[in-house]
Amino acid sequence: MACQAMGLGAAAAIVYAGRRMHFHAIGLPLEGPADLDALLETCIPEADALGTWEGSEHLTWTDASGAGLAIRLREGGVDCITPFFLPADVSALRVGPSRWHVDPGCIDCSGVDVDVSPEGDTITRSSVQLTHPRVWRATLEERPTYALRLAAFAHELAFFEDEAALLASRSDEEPSFAPNAFLPLGMFKGPEAPLSDAAIAMFNGTVDAVETRTNAGGGSFLRLRVTSMAGALDVVASPEQVPSDVLPGQLAHVVGWLVGEPALPRPEAPRKKTGLLSRFFG
Question: What single DSSP character describes residue 162?
Answer without folding.
Answer: S
